[in-house]
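Side project, low priority. Logging it here so it doesn't get lost.
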Amino acid sequence: MSDLLIEHDGDLLVLTLNRPEKLNALSPAMRTAAFDAVTDVIERRSARAILLTGAGRGFCAGADLDGDNLTDRRARIEGQVMAGINRLVQALREVPVPVVVALNGPVAGGGVGLALAGDIVIAARSATFTLAFARIGAVLDAGASWILPRLVGPARATAMAFLADEPVDAETAVAWGLVWKVVDDDALMDEARALARRLAAGPTVALGLIKRELALSQSVSLEESLRFEAACQRQAFNTDDFMAGVRAFQRKTPPDFKGK
């Protein structure tokens, strides 16, 4: 059985972490397969939205410490992190289509950074977040040190990182802005798939540009953001989807976006 299940649902790509017996701890095969799938969307526009979730009772427990030769990894960890989870997180942040993440249970360690690499994150009520790194004398990776303070503020991010054995529950996560919404466990996948399908049927080029605008805004001045917005608007106005959207608005009919 593959460590990553890949499903094509029309224009939607569904990726399911598939090591439920290990709470979907990240294996090299899982990371590589996920990176290749996301890269294919970047290079060939093979999907118009991505849905990422986990099999079984949890989303992702982070690194598979039981399966790794930790003594051997000590000398090579920097390169392994960069070539493994970090490049996957960066690909998810850069892919020019919306990424929906459905958290079906506990999220820990590098799984937190992977989860928060999505654009819209929906959590089941059973979901919890644990930055377990400090528990074993490790530090944040998978982009957690970059995205967490931007979502929840430095005080909460620091407490989550330092207090490595105190999970944040789903209701707290939504109150802090860590996730977009919380739903009942049995409704999670239906709601997440419906949302991802809706985005896959949307004006994909414009959504990708909005994603780039929001990412850039976190590291540049207002003046630079205004310039970038204007440049992105020029690109959006020159898409077929923009013309289809305007015509639909004028005719008071639903738009039929093609993603170009």
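Brief comment: The chain has two domains: 4-200, 204-251.
Revisit when time allows.
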